[in-house]
Design brief:
Length: about 80
Amino acid sequence: MVALRRKVVATVDDSIDEASADVTAVLKDGRRVHVFVEHAIGSLKNPMSDAQLEAKFRGLSDSILGTGRTRELINACWALGVKAA
């Protein structure tokens, strides 16, 4: 990772929307690979589904909280918007 990090140069381009990404990779043989994403996953115009959101949260928290506690926390969060009967 350290070697890869040394090869990456990130810059802010104020001419594109903050929900967009414009990436160009220059390969060892000189070829350039360019990708532009107008609406990144998770942006207002390309929101994550509930399943994607849960999967991302699980990926970040399972190793810290454990799968059982992560599931409890997810369930508690989804219950926040439910009215008590």
